[in-house]
Design a protein that fits this description.
It is a multi-pass membrane protein. The chain is an alpha+beta fold. It has helices spanning about 1-5, 20-30, 50-75, 95-145, 195-205, 245-255, 265-325, 345-360, 385-395, 410-425, 425-440, 445-450, 455-460, 465-480, 500-505, 540-570, 575-605, 630-635, 655-700, 715-745, 750-775, 775-820, 835-845, and strands spanning about 10-20, 35, 170, 185-190, 210-215, 220-225, 230, 235-240, 260, 325-330, 335-340, 365-370. It has 23 helices and 12 strands. Strands 1, 2, 10, 11 and 12 form a 5-stranded antiparallel beta sheet that branches. The chain has a 5-stranded antiparallel beta sheet with strand order 3-5-8-4-9, with helices on both faces.
C-alpha cells in the first residue's frame, strides 16, 4: 500500500550477463516488465551496434508478415486470436525456421498472385474481345440489313451539349448518302467509359473529321487485374481511309490507353473467332477457380498462426533492440547493463535472471549489483484496473517528483464528489451510473472486441470514474432532492400551507417565509424539503445561498487538506526549514482568514433561525442575520459597520471585532515569514558551512598538511541565493493571491450546479410538462413524441455536455486549486521493458 500513497522506491543496478545467456535473461525480464534499461551507448550510431543485423532480420520478417496480413484482410479471412497465454519469445535458433517459413509463404503467395493476375489479365482481354465481336456484329448487321445512314450519321462529333450521348457519327463526307463501303479500313477496341467524350473530340480534331466512330457501352463492369476494382468500359469501332489516318488513329488510341483487338471483316471469321473466345474463357474460368482455391488455402493456413508469428517476431526484435543498449566488456564474453528497478522487486528479478540462465544452459550466473547515484530515479506507482484511470488524470498534469505524495488515492474520492456537487441530479446520475456499471460488467467482452474508436476508448478507459461519478451524483441529487428537476417527498414536508385552493392553483409565484407559522420548526430529515419546488418566488434565492456557502466550505477544506499533504512531503524529505517557514505560515494564513470565514457561516446557521410571531427574541431571527461577505470584507479593511436594523446586535458573538483584527494581523505577518524565512536560513547555513571549511583549512595549515590555495566550498551556493530569493518571492505571491482566487474558484461548484438544475427545469417545463398535460388519443401520440425529444435532450445535453463541462471544471479544481499546494510534478515516468506494453502499443498502431 505504500506505493499507492507515494511512488515506489527505485534503485539503480548494474547487470552482468554472459553473452550466451543474455538473450534468455532479457526475455524473462521482458515477461516480468519491472526493469527500465539505460542506453550505455548514446554516442554509437544505431547501425553500428552489435545486434543490428538481428534487428534487420526481424524488420524483414515483420514486413513479410504485414504483407501476409494485408492479403488475408483483402480476402476477408478471419485471423484467429491467440488462445490462452501469449507465446513466449522463441530461442535465437528458431529465427532461421521462422525466416524460412515466412520466405516460403511470401514466395508462394507472390507466385500465386502473379499467376492469378496474368490469368485475370488474359480473362479480361478475352472478355473484352467477346464484347467487341458481339457489338461490332450488331454494327455490321445494321448495315447489311439495309440500315441507311440517318441524320445521326451526320451529327457533329463535337456537340454543344457535353452530356449528350453520341451514337453513330460520320464526318467529312461530301454526300450525306455516301455508304460505309467507301471506308475500307477500321479498328476496334475497348476504352474506359469516362474517356469516351474526350476520345471523340481528339479524333475529330486530329483527323479533321475524316473518321466514322461507333461506340456501345458494356453493360457489366469488368475487373481490373492490377487493383481488383470494378471498371466500366465501352466498345468502339473506327472507320477511316488511308494508312496515314490509320497511324494517327492508333496513336490516339494508345494515348487514351484504349486496348485494340483484331476484328475479322468476314462474318464467318467473326463467328469462328467468337466461338474460340468462348471456349478459352470457359477454360480460363476453371484455371482461375483452381488458382483462387489454392491461394485461399494458403491464406487460411497462414491466418491460423499469423497472430502468434507477430508476437514472436516482435518479442525477438524487442530483445535485440534492448541488447543493443548494453555494453560489451573487454573479453567480448560478457554484456554489461544498467537499469532502474523497484527495490521491492529485486528478488523477483533475481529469480527471473536465474530462470533465463537455466533455460540458456549457461553455467555462469548473472550478477545484479546495486549502484549509488545522484541522478533522480523515475517515478513508478503500482496501479490496477481501478486506480489506473485516476492515476492517469494525475499524470496528465505532470508526473510526480520521485517519492513525493501521490494525489491519486485521494482523487478517487474527491474527484467524483466535486463532480457530483456540480452535477447533482438523481435521474441524470442514475443514467451515468448505469452506463458506467454496464462498461464494468461487460469489461472482458468489450476489451476482446478491440473497438477502434478514440472516443469509445476514452470512455471505456475511465469506466470506473464514470461509475463513481454517477453514484456520487445520485447521492448529491438526493441531498438537493432533485430528480429530472422534480423532488421526492419521502419523509413528508416540514411546512404547512395557509393558502386557499384558488391561490394555490392560479398564483404563478408563491414563496416560503421561515419567519411564519408555516414552518413546523423542525428540518427535513435528509436533504432539501420538497416543498421548495413550489416556492417559485424565493426558491432560487434559497438554493443560491445554500449552494454558495457549501461550495466555499468544500473549497476551503480541500485546500487545507492540500497544504497538510505538503507537510507530509517536508517530513519525508527531511526539509525541516520548509516546515517552519512554509507549511506553518501557509496553514495559518488559510486558517486565520478563510477557515474563519467558514466558521462564521456555521455560526450564522446555528445562531440565527426562523422566528415566528410568538418568539420574542428578534436578535436571533433571520431579520438580524448579517451578511458573511460584508463581514469578511469589513474584517480585511479593519472597518466596523453598525447594524442599521433596530433591535439587532452589531456583532455575531462577543469579542468578534478584536478577534478579527488579531487574525488579520497574524495572517499578514505570515507573509514576510514565507517571503524571507527560507532565504534567511539558507544564507545562515552557507555561512556556517563556509566558517567550518576555513577552520579545517587553518588547522591543516598549522599541521603542515595544507597544499595549494584553499577553494571556497560554497561558491556555487552564494550564486544560488539570488535564485532562492526570486523563487520564494514568486511562490509567496502565488500562494497569497492564489488563496483568494482559489477560494473564489470553488464557486464554480455553485454556478454549474445552478446551471444544471435550471437547464433540467427548462427541459421539463418546455417539453415533458406540456406532453403530460395533453389529453385524449392525440395527447398520447403527442406525449410519445415529446418524451422522445425530452429524453434526447436529457441524455445529449444534460448528461453528456453538462457532464463533460463538470468533468473539466473538476479536473481544474484538482490540478490548480488542490495539487498546487503540495504537488511539484517534476519527475519522469518509469518505462519498463515489458512485452505486454510493446505488444499493446503495436496493436494500437495497427488499428
Amino acid at each position: 500500500m505504500g506505493s499507492l500513497f507515494r511512488s515506489e522506491e527505485m534503485t539503480l543496478c548494474q547487470l552482468f550477463l554472459q553473452s550466451e545467456a543474455a538473450y534468455a535473461c532479457v526475455s524473462e525480464l521482458g515477461e516480468l516488465g519491472l526493469v527500465q534499461f539505460r542506453d550505455l551507448n548514446p554516442d554509437v550510431n544505431a547501425f553500428q551496434r552489435k545486434f543490428v543485423n538481428e534487428v534487420r532480420r526481424c524488420d524483414e520478417m515483420e514486413r513479410k508478415l504485414r504483407y501476409l496480413e494485408k492479403e488475408i484482410r483483402r480476402d476477408g479471412i478471419p485471423m484467429l486470436e491467440i488462445p490462452g497465454e501469449v507465446p513466449e519469445a522463441p530461442q535465437p535458433r528458431e529465427m532461421i525456421d521462422l525466416e524460412a517459413t515466412f520466405e516460403k509463404l511470401e514466395n508462394e503467395l507472390r507466385e500465386v498472385n502473379q499467376n492469378a493476375e496474368a490469368l485475370k489479365r488474359n480473362y479480361l482481354e478475352l472478355t473484352e474481345l467477346k464484347h467487341i465481336l458481339r457489338k461490332t456484329q450488331v454494327f455490321f448487321d445494321e448495315h447489311e440489313g439495309g440500315a441507311s445512314t440517318t441524320e445521326s450519321m451526320t451529327r457533329a462529333l463535337i456537340s454543344d451539349d457535353p452530356n449528350k450521348h453520341m451514337g453513330q457519327v460520320q464526318l467529312g463526307f461530301r454526300d450525306k448518302q455516301e455508304s460505309l463501303e467507301f471506308l475500307p479500313c477500321f479498328v476496334a477496341g475497348v476504352i474506359l467509359r469516362e474517356r469516351i467524350p474526350a476520345f471523340e473530340r481528339m479524333l475529330w480534331r486530329a483527323c479533321r473529321g475524316n473518321v466514322f466512330l461507333r461506340q456501345a457501352e458494356i453493360d457489366t463492369p469488368l475487373e481490373d487485374p492490377s487493383s481488383s476494382d470494378q471498371v466500366y468500359k465501352s466498345v468502339f469501332i473506327i472507320f477511316f481511309q488511308g494508312d496515314q489516318l490509320k497511324t494517327r488513329v492508333k496513336k490516339i488510341c494508345e494515348g487514351f490507353r484504349a486496348t485494340l483487338y483484331p476484328c475479322p471483316e468476314a462474318p464467318a471469321d467473326r463467328r469462328e473467332m467468337a466461338m474460340g473466345v468462348m471456349t478459352r474463357i470457359e477454360d480460363l474460368n476453371t484455371v482461375l477457380g483452381q488458382t483462387q482455391d489454392h491461394r485461399h488455402r494458403v491464406l487460411v493456413a497462414a491466418a491460423k498462426n499469423i497472430k502468434n508469428w507477430f508476437v514472436k517476431v516482435r518479442k525477438i526484435k524487442a530483445i535485440y533492440h534492448t541488447l543493443n543498449l548494453f555494453n560489451l566488456d573487454v573479453t567480448q564474453k560478457c554484456l554489461i547493463a544498467e537499469c532502474w528497478v523497484p527495490a521491492l522487486d529485486l528478488e523477483t528479478i533475481q529469480l527471473a535472471l536465474r530462470r533465463g540462465t537455466e533455460r540458456s544452459g549457461s553455467s555462469v550466473p548473472p550478477i545484479l549489483n546495486r549502484m549509488e547515484t545522484l541522478e533522480d530515479p523515475p517515478t513508478y506507482n503500482r496501479t490496477n484496473k481501478f486506480t489506473s484511470a485516476f492515476q492517469n488524470l494525475i499524470y496528465a498534469y505532470g508526473v510526480a517528483t520521485y517519492r513525493e505524495v501521490n494525489p491519486a488515492p485521494y482523487t478517487i474520492i474527491t474527484f467524483p464528489f466535486l463532480f457530483a456537487v456540480m452535477f447533482g441530479d438523481l435521474g441524470h446520475g442514475a443514467i451515468m451510473a448505469v452506463f458506467g456499471f454496464w462498461m464494468c460488467y461487460k469489461e472482458k467482452p468489450l476489451q476482446a472486441k478491440k473497438i477502434d474508436s478514440e472516443i469509445w476508448n476514452i470512455f471505456f478507459g475511465g469506466r470506473y470514474i464514470v461509475l463513481l461519478m454517477g453514484l456520487f451524483s445520485m447521492y448529491t441529487g438526493l441531498i438537493y432532492n432533485d430528480i429530472f428537476s422534480k423532488s421526492l417527498n419521502i419523509f413528508g414536508s416540514s411546512w404547512r400551507q395557509n393558502y386557499n385552493e384558488s391561490t394555490l392553483t392560479t398564483a404563478k409565484s408563491l414563496q416560503l417565509n421561515p419567519d411564519s407559522m408555516d414552518y413546523l420548526q423542525h428540518p427535513y430529515p435528509f436533504g432539501i424539503d420538497p416543498v421548495w419546488q413550489l416556492a417559485e418566488a424565493n426558491k432560487i434565492i434559497f438554493m443560491n445561498a445554500y449552494k454558495m456557502k457549501i461550495s466555499i466550505i468544500i473549497g476551503v477544506f480541500h485546500m487545507l487538506f492540500g497544504v497538510c499533504l505538503s507537510l507530509w512531503n517536508h517530513l519525508y524529505f527531511k526539509r525541516r526549514i520548509s516546515v517552519y517557514v512554509e507549511f506553518i505560515p501557509q496553514i495559518l494564513f488559510l486558517l486565520l482568514l478563510f477557515f474563519y470565514m467558514v466558521l462564521l457561516m456555521f455560526i450564522k446557521w446555528t445562531s440565527y433561525g426562523p422566528s415566528p410571531p410568538n418568539f420574542d427574541d428578534v436578535r436571533t431571527s433571520g431579520y438580524c442575520a448579517p451578511s458573511i461577505l460584508i463581514t469578511f470584507i469589513n474584517m480585511m479593511l479593519f472597518k466596523t459597520d453598525p447594524n442599521m436594523r433596530t433591535d439587532c446586535d452589531d456583532t455575531m458573538f462577543a469579542g468578534q471585532m478584536g478577534l478579527q483584527k488579531f487574525f488579520v494581523i497574524a495572517a499578514l505577518m505570515c507573509v514576510p515569514v514565507m517571503l524571507f524565512g527560507k532565504p534567511y536560513f539558507i544564507m545562515k547555513e552557507q555561512k556556517a558551512r563556509a566558517s567550518q571549511g576555513h577552520q579545517s583549512i587553518e588547522a591543516s595549515a598549522e599541521n603542515g598538511t595544507a597544499g595549494g590555495a584553499p577553494v571556497p566550498a560554497s561558491a556555487h551556493h552564494d550564486e544560488d541565493i539570488t535564485e532562492v530569493f526570486i523563487h520564494q518571492a514568486i511562490h509567496t505571491i502565488e500562494y497569497v493571491l492564489g488563496s483568494v482566487s482559489h477560494t473564489a474558484s470553488y464557486l464554480r461548484l455553485w454556478a454549474l450546479s445552478l446551471a444544471h438544475a435550471q437547464l433540467a427545469e427548462v427541459a421539463w417545463n418546455m417539453l415533458l410538462r406540456k406532453g403530460l398535460q395533453s389529453q385524449g388519443y392525440e395527447g398520447g401520440i403527442y406525449l410519445y413524441v415529446v418524451f422522445a425529444g425530452w429524453a434526447a435532450i436529457s441524455v445529449s445535453i444534460l448528461v453528456l455536455m453538462e457532464g463533460l463541462s463538470a468533468f473539466l471544471h473538476t479536473l481544474r479544481l484538482h490540478w490548480v486549486e488542490f495539487q498546487s499546494k503540495f504537488y511539484a510534478g517534476e519527475g519522469y515516468l518509469f518505462q519498463p521493458f515489458s512485452f505486454e506494453l510493446i505488444l499493446d502499443s503495436a496493436g494500437q498502431g495497427e488499428e
